[in-house]
Each structure stands twice: as structure tokens, then as C-alpha cells.
Amino acid sequence: MIHSLFLINCSGDIFLEKHWKSVVSQSVCDYFFEAQEKAADVENVPPVISTPHHYLISIYREKIFFVSVIQTEVPPLFVIEFLHRVADTFQDYFGECSETAIKDNVVIVYELLEEMLDNGFPLATESNILKELIKPPTILRSVVNSITGSSNMGETLPTGQLSNIPWRKAVVKYTNNEAYFDVIEEIDAIIDKSGSTVFAEIQGVIDSCIKLSGMPDLSLSFMNPRLLDDVSFHPCIRFKRWESERVLSFIPPDGNFRLISYRVSSQNLVAIPVYVKHIISFKENSSSGRFDVTIGPKQNMGKTVEGVIVTVHMPKAVLNMNLTSTQGSYTFDPVLKVLTWDIGKISPQKLPNLKGIVNLQSGAPKPEENPSLNIQFKIQQLAISGLKVNRLDMFGEKYKPFKGVKYITKAGKFQVRT
Amino acid sequence: PVTCRHDDLKEMLDSNKDSLKLEAMKRIVAMIARGKNASDLFPAVVKNVACKNIEVKKLVYVYLVRYAEEQQDLALLSISTFQRGLKDPNQLIRASALRVLSSIRVPIIVPIMMLAIKEAASDMSPYVRKTAAHAIPKLYSLDSDQKDQLIEVIEKLLADKTTLVAGSVVMAFEEVCPERIDLIHKNYRKLCNLLIDVEEWGQVVIINMLTRYARTQFLSPNQNESLLEENPEKAFYGSDEEDSKDDKPDAASLVKRKPYVMDPDHRLLLRNTKPLLQSRNAAVVMAVAQLYFHLAPKAEVGVIAKALVRLLRSHRSQGNWAAAKAALSVQGMFEPYLKSFYIRSTDPTQIKILKLEVLTNLANETNISTILREFQTYIRSMDKDFVAATIQAIGRCATNIGKVRDTCLNGLVQLLSNRDELVVAESVVVIKKLLQMQPSQHSEIIKHMAKLTDNIQVPMARASILWLIGEYCEHVPKIAPDVLRKMSKSFTGEEDIVKLQVINLAAKLYLTNSKQSKLLTQYVLNLAKYDQNYDIRDRARFIRQLIVPTEKSGALNKYAKKLFLAQKPAPILESSFKDRDHFQLGSLSHLLNAKAVGYQELPDWPDEAPDPSVRNVEVPYGAWQGLPTLRFSLSLSFPDPESVSESESESSSSSSESGSDSGSRGEESGDQSEEEEEEKKKKKKGKEGPRKVCPESAGRYHRHWRGEGAGSATSWELRNTSRDMGGLQPISPCLDSFTSPALERRDQLITSQPQHVPTAFLPPSAQMLSPVFSTMKTYELLHRMAGEGLSVEYYFNRQPFPPDPHMVAVQIQFSNNTESEVKNLRVSEPKLVSGMRIQEFQEIALMPGSMVGIDTCPQLPGVNWAGSFSLWHVSSSTHSRQFYVSIQPPVGELMAPVFMSENEFKKEQSKLTGMSEITEKLTLLDKCQSDHTIVQRVTAAANVSRVPCGADNEYRFAAKTVTSGSLILITLEQKEAARAHLTVNSEKMVIGTMLVQDISQALAQ
């Protein structure tokens, strides 16, 4: 299946290679570089490239291209998903999935890659199992190891590998038993010129941090589970229970993991927490234009909208912008033509406004298109869909765990057309 | 300096300090990771292969696997270490030794690898077995001659029941012998049932393989539909014709058109994969989606839409889009999610274009106005490639949906005044295409475009307009010469491509309307003759020669008009997703639209289903991990002696109906084809090994016994006597259906010889029906309406079945409600599943109004079975019918009562706690409060006996499962206010769960 993996940074250096079968020369990456050049934008590099003898399947994560070499038929998503899993594992082990982190821990990276694939077929990708085989680096451990000469490798088969709950190890002990759930919802929306919603849906996830001793069996129930239109589960969740009772019943993995992702889509249900008033216009033959944007809270359920950032990709003809903002600060990148307005909190009393003049290249024709506004925001303590966790029960263990649920709403791909 | 550093490393490796070795190995691995050559260190490194420090060892392994291929001789030094490792008591060490050993690509060790793999395949640890499965394709790629031996290992591992091994062995199967679909038969149901517990990557591989498998083994679930679509009229008119000819073909065609019934195994696959649509792993979701796309009835494919939309939304959508793009072309499925495909200005261009493609595909009469409104927004985008794609999309909508064609055209005409060349060029091209479809209706637009030449400056657009006017100059006879006049005026100032089109226009006008344009044409050609660009000069010279007749001009002159004004085919605007249908969805080949190496074709559905019984497995009791549904079907019947020839054809068609036969056959061609078949079969066997039971050979058995039966009455007679002699003892009553289908069928044939069978001839286990006990619950098998006068009921008489105590007796009762005698009644097609056995019974005849009962005793292999068998009822010599029926025994009948004391009960119960204990709370109804009713209801629901109990609010019952003799203990504890606790203790958890359900239901009635 997966023959080789090359990690390439943005400047085109191949800084790591790993082969699971015979060695494939680095020169195969030239096809990738070619495609990359053609695409101009990193996002537009085709994920699958066909070369005379191989196929290259790549992902782009944290400014690194993960380029895998394939020789025979394999579902492309299989490879893509696996590469993401590799990146996730690095993230998990080193706290970040960056070029420096990988270079600093190259031996562990290599050991991980060795365990994750055997002959190109995934072997152990569950972080729990990997962590028993190869211990993540910590400062303390590396000091101890350098003195005692003991190793980072597990000497026995991880217990998860053989159990039917591979995501959890057998012996887990905590002095403080805690279970935290973060319900994070993102609003994806397209708002048209007149302010009406063209499209809106809520994408939610429940991220969990569970530190419980032993083999706890949890069940999490919601006040309004019917809201969830489409759900995807961590393998630990018992599908049958969900189907019949709409209860999430599971033996959790140890540590951080994503319990479910869900979607709430039904336009009338989605409350749009902000509104935008905008005038962006360019005059014919005057090499200047007007820019006036006001943003305000709407249906915010008594919660403050914070962390508001407006990003606008201005037309190419724009040279500069002279704006004044009543709140927050703005920057305009004249190379990328990106205007960023960092607003912060919106208070309903005094709506933030940004207005001024847009300078165009002299002689350039009036831009035909109006830029769209991309808006980011955050609302704490609110799940915009109205989803509420009802209760969390634990079976199988005697102690009383500390439980917590946090809600947060964010803007996902939130775009206002002008 | 490089060699210096290496010396340094060598020194460290030679030292006897592990920490130094480790440091050296780390540095070497870092070199390998950067792609630097470290091969000269091989001798120094390989020495450390037996190092005690596990991390050093692991890193040495990494090094070895990387360089062994280059330094084969030295690599051999390490082999003995691995061979030792293979015997290590620690399973992790065994596994990693095998992993490295098999990863060293040195041909000379192939025999060692083979041996190691074989040994590991029967290792106790499933992890080692998994590693063995991984090693198979490694060895195969090193030496493909080992294929046969490897297939044996694969076969063995396929039978493995642990989820850990399943994914890996199927992966090996796919790489080594994907064509050996027969190896899957017996593992099919197991794989379906294990699927949900297999790790994600294995799931993908298994699902893809099963998709292919299902395509070869089941019938298309959409065949009814396609039949209806194809020839509803034919079928209607056809019957008239056939009436006049003969009855037989009519019957045959009826059989052909019988309603499609999905094979339960096919359903099993669909049912067991569906939950995986909710997997977090995109590859699994896609795998299930393609499975549904290729295997599910059309009505059910829609379920994948939701999951696919989810994939596309993911933050990692880039690749997902690419991979899923094909699925998006499925018509209609995504309509509810139309808006999810609306485009944001921040999407990468690739995704924008894919979304556009989907939107275009989804466009129909009802939503087109919304979609066009969206498109209007997109046209103003900054991303010009995307705008161009949008314009093309509009063009496609216009071609597909006639209603909006004019709107689209007008919209596109407006775009002609866009400032962006690309936009204009693209619009002109699309308009050109649209106009080519029906030019006569659009002379207005052509006129409009002609006017545009005054304003539009984009050369490409001007050129396109000129081409259009030239091409359709006959539709705009007045304007065209005028345009030429204007253009000739400005000719010298035009761009080259425009000049060329001016010349073209002039030529075309000259040919159609020479009167008005002759002078103009010559003027233009003269101008062109002295143009700076030699292309233009050449063109002018060429055209002049071609169109202006002179003495010198050749034969081409005559055809000038044909050359210039030939009918040009309208370009077809269609989706780029087209023509990929033949690839398996979500595969690399599908994405690239080219066959990738190792791609396995997705076969077409077979016309007739291969024998489903090949998937039957003898399963030792208790081996089940899931809750399987077992079926059995009983076979067959025989026609009356007088009507052999006539009903032969019918019975053959009916047997093909039952799915056991792959081909149709006729009595006439019997002998010859049989010989041929025989030969073929032998060849096949030679090639594929004796163990294979392929669909053909299963069909062959059928033929075989039929032929023999017709020819050799002697053998039957012999058997018959033996049966008479051993009258008291049923003769081989319990045939294992799987191991000896041929034998069994022959047996049937014998018993089915057309003779009048008096009741006394029935085996001893069949008896005249005594009145049914009032407590016995009878179940209907065949209603008399459905059975055309024959009704069949069955019940469990709870009597021990003497020939085999592991069987459960089922009494089947036949009643003839017709006027005439029902003869030759028998159970046919004994294709029993999973170790189920059935007591054969002979053909019987029923006088009108009479009843007969028969004990037949399927052995129950495990938890649950549902049976189906077909009954053949011949009521007259010309008419025979076959009925499909099924028996679904309640779990309570699969046990026999045991008597035990209270103490014994308590003792046993204490052993069966934890997982083996199932408790349910229930509320007892008023009428169900008394001792008597409770006991009666429980014993009616299950074949259990009461155990004495000291407490008066508690009831205890005990039983043993018939097949394995596992204890089942039931406790019913009455609490205050009609509440009660029902507890079942049994190591057979599935039985326990079902029993709890059944009993609580019985008590609630």
C-alpha cells in the first residue's frame, strides 16, 4: 500500500524520508514540486499526482507536505486519512507538528513510523497503543534515560493491542478522577448582500479529556439529542445504544480525544449571532473607493460575542486603504491585499465601525467584484444549537469522578457577501 | 571528515556500553531519515542485532530493513538472531522478529521466511498471527512462486476468528490472490459479523473486498426495476403470442420474472456495514459509501449522502473532495444538501470547481432558479478560473434544462461586455456552443452579438463573434455583409486572430452571398496579402485560391462551399465525472480515471445467483461472537412417473429459481453436456485444488444426481431394501449438508422415487398426528390460502429426539384442505446453514381433508436460527408447486429442562455472574400475579423446569441448551407492587439476552 513517505517543508526541502518497502529515490518528489509550482497556492496542489511509475498522495498540514508514494491501487482516502493520523500522532507526541519538532525528535518519529505501518499497511495507529510501545519524550525522562541508559521502548505487547477495546490500556490510575467535555460548535454560513442567510449549518464536536482510573463505563445523555442531524463517532461508542436510546455509552480512551462530531442543519434553527452593515464601492475612473463596515450582535442570548476578527480579501487593484476604526485595530497587507480588522468584544451599546477610503491603482479599471467579508467570533458558555448535556453516569468503578461540561460557539466558515 | 565521523560511530557501536550504542544508532537513524547514505556502517551495526537494549535493537532493525537489500551477504549474519526471536516466549518479540525477518528483502531466505510465516500463522497470540498475515504479501513480492503455499496460509488465517487478524489477512488476500473469491465463501458471514469490531484500516480493506465478492455472488437488487424499465410492453404483448404457441415458454418466462428476493447474506452485508457510515475515519465512510453505491437497492443508496456531505465539510476536506468527487455525480442523492455545496470565496479553486460540478449536476427544473442566482454571485468572483468554470456550468444547465435556456443565453450575452478577457472568451465560447444546438431560433442573439463588435475589444471575443456570423450567415443575411464591411474598414488595426476570422467570414460570405460581398472579400484578401503576419498572408492566399474560380485552381474549388460551410457537430457539454462508472467508487483508478496497477475489476452482477449454500459453515457451538441469523432450507421433490419429461423442465427451472443452479439445462442435451461438464469440472479441480467448492461444481452436483437417478433404478432399490431392513433405525437421518451435498441429494432422490408412499412407509420418527396439546403453541408455516389448499403448521413438542439428543424436535403438520389428493409432498433443497442438520423425511401423500405430522429435527448450532425451506406439492400429475417457508424457533425451544435442587441451583448461579448474568426489571400484570400463571407462562415461553425454592416470592427455573448443554438458570423475583426482577444466568450471553426478552414478553401479555 504505502510505499514511502517524504516530509517536505514550504521551501521545498525534503527533511525526512521513510521507506516501508524498497527504497524509492527522492527524485520522485520532482513531480510533486512541478505540481506545486503549477498550483501557485499550497491549497491547490492536487492531492493525488500520477507519475510514470508511482502515484503521489499528499496532504498539507502545519506548513509541511506529507507526500506518500503509492505503487498499486489503494483508496486515496485511505492514504489521506492515514497521513492525517500520522500528523495527529506527531502533534500528540511533541505538542506540535512542526518541522523543528520533527527534526528534534527524528528518532522517535522514525520509531513511530516504523510501528504505524508494516509493509505499507497500518499496524498500530491508536495513540494509546503507540504510547505504550514508544514513550513520548519528556524532559525528565530524557534526563533519567541518559543517566540510567534505560530506553523509551516498551518491552511487552501493549495490552490494548489484544483487547477488544484497543483505545484503552488496562491499568490506569489517577488520584484525581476527572471527566471534562467541551461542546464546541461552529457556524458555517453564507450571508448574502442584503443580510439574509443563504446557507447556514452548525458543525459541532465534543472533545473530551478523561482521566479516570480503571475501566469506567460512561454514558452521556443529552436533553435534546434529536437535534443532532448527523453524527460520527469515536470507535469506543456503542452504536446500538445510540440508535435505540440516543445515549452515548462508551468505555473512554485515556486522555484527550474527540468523542463525536455532529451536524445540525436546518436553516431556521441556526441563529446567526452577528449582523454586518457594509458599503464597499468603487467609483468609475476615480482610482478610489469607499469602505464602511459596521458589525453588531444579534440574538446573542445574553452572551457576549468576542474575539471578533474580520478578514477581507480586497481586489487586486487595491493599492492601499486609509481607514479609521472606532474599535480594535486594522492592518492591510498590500502584497496579499488582505485587510484584517481585529475587533475583540462587541458591545451592543457602541457598535464597532471601520470606514475610510480605498486607494486603487491609477488607471486600473474599476474592480467588478466586491470582496466578501470573512468573520471570526467566539461566544463562551453557549452552544448555539441549544444542545445540552443532561447527565453523565459512570458504571464499573466505585469512585466519584469530577465532571465538567463547557460550551463554546465559534464562527466556522462564516462569510458575508457584499 | 565524513569518514572520520563514521569511524567515530563505529567505535561507539563497538563499545560495550549500551548508552553509547544507542547514541550511535540514533545518529545513524537520523542520517537515514535525512536520506543520507549510511550503508558503509553495515558490518558495525549488524553486530548489534542481538543487543539486550530493546531500543538499540529496534533501531538496528530499522537500519537492517533499510540496507539489507543492498548488503545481502552481511544481512544473512543477522538471520539466526531472528530465528531465535521467533521462539521467544514474549509475543512482542516473536512478532517483531517475524516483522523484520520478513522485511529483509533477501531472496535467499525465502524458505526460512516461508517456514516462519507458517509457524506464526498457528501461533497462540493473535498479534503474532496478525504479523504473519502482514508478512505474506512481503514474501509474495519477493518471490511470487510461493503463491500456492501462501494461499494455504491465507486460507488458514481467513478462518481465524479474532478481529485483530481479520483486516490483515484480507489485505494479504487482496495482494496475493484476489481472484480466489472461493476462499471467502466460508468466511463471508464471519467477516460481516466481525466487521464492526475490526480496526478501521482493516474495515476499509474488508469492505472493499466484500463489495467485489457480493458482485459475484448475489443478484442485482435493482433487476426488477431494470426489467420493468426495459420492456414493460414486451411482457404485455408477449403473453398473447406465447399463448398461441405453447405453455412452456410462458411458464419459463414467468419464472424468470419472479419477484426479486434479496439473498439474506446480501442483506447481512448491507446491514452490518451501515453503522460504519458514522465512523470518524473518512476512509471507512467512503468504503461503506461505495459499497452501498455498488450493492444496495436504488432506494437505499440515499443513506450515504449525509455521510458524504460530512466528509466534504471536514477541515481536511481537500483530499476528501478529490476522493469523493465521483460519488457526487450520483444523480439526485444530494438534492437535500444542495446548499452545502454553495461556494465561499475562500475555498481553494479545486474545491470550488468540484462544488460547481455538483451544483450543475443537481440542477433541475425546480431548483434551477436558485442555482442560477448563486451562479450570478460566482460570476463576479475574483478567481477568474472559477468564473470561467461557472460560465461553462451555466452553459451546461442551459443545455440540460430547456426552460432556462433563454435566460442563460441572455445572461451570458450580458457577460460579453465584461472587462475580463477570460470571462468574455469563455462566454462567447459557451454561447457559441449553445447557439450551435439550435441556430435558427437564435438569429436575434447572433444579431445582438454582431452589434457587440462595435464595443467589444477583447480579440478572442471578436474572433468568436465573427466565426459565429460566418457560420450562420444564412440566418442573418442582412447583417453579415454589413459586419464584414465594418471589419474590413478596421482590418488593419485588428489583432491577428481577429484578422483570421475576418478572412474566414469573408470567404463564407463570398460563397453564400457573392453578389453583395464579392468586392468586400477581395478587398479584405488584398489587405491580408500585404499583412505583416505571414500566417495571415498565407491564409489569404490559400483562401483566394480556394474560393475564387480561376483556370489554375484545382478540383477543390468545386467543393469550397462544402469545406467552409460543412455541418459542424455541436460540442457536447457534459460532466467531467462521466465515463468513470466502470471503476469502483473511491478507488485510485476511479479518481485518476485510469486503471492503476493492482486494480481489481468490479464484476457485473451475475444473471443467476451462484449457489448460496457455499457460504454455509459448520460452526462449533459457542464460537459465535455476534448474533447470527441462520437459515436452513429443505429440499426437494419429484414429479410423478407419468410426467417425468414434462415436469423435468419445470423442475429444472424451479431449481434454478432456488438459486442452486447456475445454468439452465434441458433433458435432451443432458448426456452430452454432462460429459462436457464433467470434463470441465475435472480440469477445474486439477487447477484449483480439490477443496474448492465453486458455484459451478455445486450446480454440477445437482445435475449429477438428477442424471444418475433417472438411469439407475437399481441403486434406489438397494437402498430401499436396506431401509426396510433397518426399519427401526432411521437411516443416516442427519446428513451434514455441507460436507456431502452430493450424497445427501442422492439420498433424497432415492426417497423421492415416484411411488405411492403409504403412511406406514414413513420413518419411525414421523407419526400420525396426535391431538396437539393445548399448551403447545403452534406456528403457521404455510397458510392454506398461500399454499393453495395445503396448510402447514409446526410446533415444538419438547420431546427428546432419540436418534440424537443434540437435536430439537420440530413437528410439522401438513393439512390438505383441497378436494383432491396431494401427492409427493416433500421438503426440498436441504441447504442447511452452519452446522444445522435436519432429519430427512420421505415423500408423503395426503388425501383430501387429511392431516399428517412429521418430526423433523434440525440441530441447532447456536443461538438462533431461522429456517426456510421449500415445500413441493404435487396435486396432480401436471401441476406442481413449490413453496418457500421458514421456521423461526423461539430461543426458549432450544433448551431442555434439567432438574436440580435449590442448593445446586445456587451453586451454579454463583458461577455464572458478571457478564453471564442478565437482569431486567418488569412489572407484572394483575392477572399474572398468581403462582400458577407465572409458572405456566414461563414454561410456555421456554422449555425449562421449575427448581424448588424456599422463598415464596421467588421462582427458579433451570434448563440446558440442547446442543452444548450449557446451563441456563432463570430467577424471577417478585417485589412489592407488582414489580419483579427477572435474572437469567448463562454463559451463552446471546441466548440469555433473548430469553429475557421472550420471558418478559410472555409475562407482560
Structure summary:
The complex is a heterodimer of chains A (418) and B (1005). Chain A is α+β, with helices and mostly antiparallel strands and 418 residues long. Chain A has 8 helices and 23 strands.
Keywords:
heterodimer; A: 418 residues; alpha+beta; nine-stranded mixed sheet; five-stranded antiparallel sheet; 8 helices; B: 1005 residues; six-stranded antiparallel sheet; four-stranded antiparallel sheet; extended
Describe this structure in words.
The complex is a heterodimer of chains A (418) and B (1005). Helices cover 18% and strands 42% of the residues of chain A. Chain A has helices spanning 29-39, 76-94, 99-104, 106-116, 127-133, 139-148, 159-162, 239-245, and strands spanning 2-9, 14-19, 48-50, 55-61, 64-70, 117-118, 121-122, 178-191, 197-211, 217-222, 230-233, 247-250, 255-264, 274-282, 288-297, 305-313, 318-325, 329-333, 338-346, 353-360, 373-380, 389-395, 402-416. A nine-stranded mixed β-sheet of chain A has the order 11-13-9-8-23-21-16-19-18, with no helix packed on it. In chain A, strands 2-1-5-4-3 form a five-stranded antiparallel β-sheet. A four-stranded antiparallel β-sheet of chain A has the order 14-15-20-17, with no helix packed on it. Chain A is globular and about 75 Å long. With 1005 residues, chain B is of the alpha+beta class. Helices cover 51% and strands 9% of the residues of chain B. In chain B, a hairpin with a 7-residue loop joins β3 (778-782) and β4. In chain B, α23 (349-362) packs parallel to α25 and α30 (479-490) runs antiparallel to α31 (496-512). At the A-B interface, β2, β4, α2, α4 and β7 of A face α2, α4, α7, α9 and α11 of B. Chain B: Pfam families: Adaptin_N, AP3B1_C, AP3B1_C_2. Chain B: It is found in: Cytoplasmic vesicle, Clathrin-coated vesicle membrane; Golgi apparatus. Chain B: This is AP-3 complex subunit beta.
